[in-house]
Amino acid sequence: MTDLIPTLQSDGQILAHVNGCLGLITLNRPQALNALSLPMIRDMTALLRHWAGQPEIQAVAVLGASRDGKPAAFCAGGDIRFFHQAALAGDSALGEFFTEEYRLNHLIHHYPKPYVALMDGIVMGGGMGISQGAKLRVLNENSRLAMPETGIGLFPDVGGGWFLGQCPGHVGEWLALTGQAIAVGDALEWGLGDVYVRAEQWPALVDDLRHGSQPSAEHVVATVMERADLAPASAPKATLDRIDRHFGQASLSAILASLAAAEDDWAREAHETLLKRSPLMLCVTLELVRRARGLSLADDLRLERDLVHHAFHLRGAARSETVEGIRALAVDKDHAPRWHPPTLADVDPAEVAAFFASPWPAGEHPLSDLA
Questions:
Q1: How confident is the model at residue 49 (pLDDT cuts 50, 70, 90)?
Q2: Active site residue 299
Q3: Cis-peptide, bond into residue 341, ω within 30° of zero
Q4: Which of 20, 77, 125, 126 is catalytic?
């Protein structure tokens, strides 16, 4: 049994367990909503690579540790306070975090054995990155999925450009720009989840995966599917039509104008949300989602690695929109980011274009070998 679990480095932030043919990974940082640290990313990668070569392991499941008496969280994203500190300190670990996280995302999407993501509660940012590539994405009525990166002056990464771009119509633009959280019905309807299991069934499901007989990958999948149920209703077609009407506009300025001209609360709320975001990074985000629709996952991850480098370094950490956004949300907590430029009219198209120029020569990209 010990040969099936390699030595882990995250000091208990990742727990590994083997039950029959099933390898279980538990994100064990519940007080931080299981936000990913670099050691956690390294441990997940080590486990998945090790188990890929072990015939005894036929399937893998990943879940988040719970907090007693508190709402569930699968994974709330990456450790943004670390991003802030590392950027200001010029710490090379910041680049290592994103390179290794994106490699992990790619590994999950192409994993040779069934990978099951138990997406209980909050599933945001980096949590989407380690779940969207799963063969079976399991949700319940507590699941809340989002890519909220524009709220901190970033863009939807971890393959978000690619998987949001696969959503129907212009749902991807709406989710990417606003950071809107969605529930199980919409997630299933829009291709961001696979199966619904009632929250009341969750403890029995997890217990069965941990301790019940799991002799084969087929049995692991059956353990989930025997508890599957009809999901709560998704958004009505009128909502999708409204998303397409506004977020299918050709430019960010046209999207904002379309929302401003509408006379309904939904459009007003979306418009107000966008006005709070970094105008520069909204432009970068819109361009990413639309470019990524024509890219492979590997090419999208390479592009996102370029973008995230520029997000922290193009203007230096002191003038980074992302550093400022994290400061306002998680460091000073004044919720008053000072975006530069402050309005869309002041955004220089050349600066947006600069984000999409790779800082690495051909063949030297840190993700150049992703297939």
A1: very high
A2: no
A3: yes
A4: 126
Q: Which pLDDT does position 2 carry in this prediction?
A: 55
**CATH fold label, 1-146+191-233:** 2-enoyl-CoA Hydratase; Chain A, domain 1 (3.90.226)
Q: What does pTM read for this prediction?
A: 0.97
Q: Which of 77, 89, 259 is nearest to 174 (CA)?
A: 259
| CA torsion through residues 343, 349, 355, 359, sign | negative
Torsion of CA 110, 114, 115, 116, to 10 degrees: 140
Q: Where do you find CATH 3.90.226.10 in the chain? A: 1-146+191-233, 236-371
Q: Is 125 a catalytic residue?
A: no
CA 222/CA 112 separation, integer angstroms: 19
In angstroms, the CA 297 to CA 349 distance is 26
Contact 248, 171 (CB under 8 A): no
Q: Which amino acid is at 39?
A: P
Active site residue 12: no
Task: DSSP letter for 327, please.
Answer: I
- pLDDT, tens digit (0-9, with 9 covering 90-100), for 345-370: 999 999 999 999 999 998 999 999 99
**Strands 73-75 and 122-124, bridge-based pairing:** parallel
Q: In what order do the strands lie in the sheet with 136-139?
A: 14-19, 22-27, 59-64, 115-119, 136-139, 195-197, 228-229
Largest CA distance in the chain: 63
**Annotation marks residue 78 as catalytic:** yes
pLDDT at 71: 86
Superfamily of domain 236-371: 2-enoyl-CoA Hydratase; Chain A, domain 1 (3.90.226.10)
- For the chain, the average pLDDT equals 96
Query: Residue 303: in which H helix or E strand, if any?
Result: helix 297-313
- Span 8-30, average pLDDT: 97
Task: Check 43, 79, 101, 149 and give the catalytic one.
Answer: 149
Phi and psi based region of residue 106 (left: phi greater than 0; alpha: psi -120 to 50; beta: remaining): alpha
| Among candidate residues 111, 159, 119, 168, the one with its CA nearest the CA of residue 135 | 111
Q: Return the pLDDT at 358.
A: 98
Catalytic residue among 20, 23, 78, 127: 78
pLDDT band, residue 72 (cuts 50/70/90): confident
Q: Say yes or no to pLDDT of 67 above 90.
A: no
Exactly one of 101, 157, 194, 304 is catalytic; name it.
157
